[in-house]
Specification:
This protein has four helices and 18 strands. The chain is α+β, with helices and mostly antiparallel strands.
Length: 436
């Protein structure tokens, strides 16, 4: 019995000791996990602090670089302003009618739409006539223009070109002033639709494209009071209504290549392959800017020109595959007509407007070979003008009357009165003594 009790006691003691060890091991493991968690949290916090410090250091370095570049940028801006001051001083205008904007920067967000329509009348050596109609697909571009005291730069992109395989393009380099202007343009059109006079439905033309270079210039006689740039690029402000006569000259060169499917049924005896274009025009016109009220500016210009030289060649192929090259004979009246319209509404430092330019030309003889071409452009824009911090005009300081001056003046008057009174009293005394 005693042995049994002793065994039970030993078993209980061993069990209690084992539970104690288990509790100790569990507590040790718990403490270890807690320590690891605390260590991880500390490491994470330290890492976040280091990242935050690194971020703040990078931002501080960038700010320091910007601050160090500011004086250089301001110095460069001052030098540029001095050059522009000399340039603008040479431009003489009647500021009662035309003036530069008060703000130094002008920005315009714009949308342009272009189109081209052609009518070709051709007669081959066999006397066979053909009428062809070509239409370029309208092109839409979005862009923005920035102008700093008369120096402009613009950027445009075509959404239709980005979303499709159309490679149409129009590039332009131009210079506009109130006295004269120059335009150099390159037009590339690959998307044409066409038909003949014997068919009513237009269809897309394959392997048909146009490449055209154009150089044009104009001179304004009344540039001191009339401004074309006030309407078409907003670099000037037309303050009062004025008009002017203009003279212009232009040179065009290029080609139109026509694919095989313009006349797929071969209704005509010859197929039109290519047209070579070369011409020089000169003419005169008149433009007018109407300032209506405080907000509206309406513009209109008509510029007719005559082709004093042309060299157009027509390339055709008959049904047997023989190619012919016919030179265009000058007709009784070969002309080039340019029309411009525009309307702008302005308020405060903002303005919105619409402009359009239409160019129509006719060359050749209807009885032989004639080409009529109409190009048009429409533009809608919204603009705003701002001052840079360097050019911001200081607010006018209100003149205040000086109180000290008034006090000084009053005291001086009082002294003068006192002195005069003393002199009067002295004189009276002297007179009395003399009488006595």
């Amino acid at each position: 019995m005693k042995k049994t009790l002793a065994c039970l006691l030993l078993a209980l003691t061993a069990s209690v000791m084992a539970e104690g060890r288990t509790v100790i091991l569990y507590q040790t493991a718990t403490d270890s996990i807690a320590a690891d968690t605390t260590k991880n949290d500390t490491t994470k916090t330290t890492l976040l602090q280091r990242l935050q410090e690194k971020k703040e250091q990078i931002v501080q370095n960038i700010q320091e670089k910007i601050d160090s570049l500011k004086p250089k940028a301001e110095e460069a801006m001052i030098k540029a302003d001095s050059i522009l001051d000399v340039r603008n001083a040479k431009i003489t205008t009647d500021t009662f009618y035309v003036a530069r904007p008060q703000e130094t920067w002008t920005f315009r967000a714009k949308t342009d739409v272009f189109g081209d329509m052609m009518h070709i009348r051709a007669v081959d050596m066999g006397g066979n006539k053909g009428n062809y109609y070509l239409n370029a697909d309208p092109k839409v571009t979005l862009g923005i223009m920035a102008n700093y005291r008369g120096i402009s730069a613009s950027f445009s992109l075509s959404p239709s070109k980005m979303l499709s395989d159309i490679s149409d393009m129009m590039s332009a380099i131009n210079y506009y002033s109130n006295t004269f202007g120059i335009d150099f343009t390159f037009e590339k059109v690959d998307a044409f639709r066409g038909r003949t006079s014997l068919t009513s439905n237009t269809h897309k033309l394959a392997n048909t494209n146009m490449r055209l270079f154009a150089l044009a210039g104009y001179y304004v006689f009344n540039g001191k009071k009339f401004s074309l740039p006030a309407v078409f690029n907003s670099t000037w402000v037309q303050k009062r209504s004025a008009g002017s006569f203009l003279v212009q000259a232009g040179f065009n060169t290029g080609r139109i290549k026509i694919g095989d499917n313009l006349d797929p049924d071969h209704d005509f005896a010859s197929s039109l392959n290519r047209i070579d274009i070369n011409s020089f025009t000169i003419g005169a016109g008149y433009g007018y800017n109407l300032v209506a009220g405080k907000h509206w500016l309406v513009h209109g210009t008509v510029q007719p020109s005559l082709m004093i030289w042309q060299n157009y060649k027509l390339h055709t192929t008959d049904k047997e595959g023989n190619e012919e090259v016919n030179k265009m004979d000058s007709g009784p009246l070969n002309f080039f007509l340019v029309g411009r319209l525009g309307a702008i509404y302005s308020w405060d430092r903002y303005f919105i407007g619409l402009t359009s330019v239409v160019q129509h030309s006719k060359s050749g003889k209807d009885s032989d070979f004639a080409l009529r071409d109409t190009q048009w452009q429409a533009r809608a824009f919204f603009g705003w003008r701002i001052h840079t911090k360097l050019h911001r005009r200081p607010e006018p300081v209100k003149k205040r009357r000086r109180t000290t001056t008034r006090k000084t003046t009053t005291s001086a008057k009082a002294k003068t009165t006192t002195t005069a009174a003393k002199k009067s009293a002295t004189t009276t005394k002297k007179t009395t003594t003399t009488k006595r």
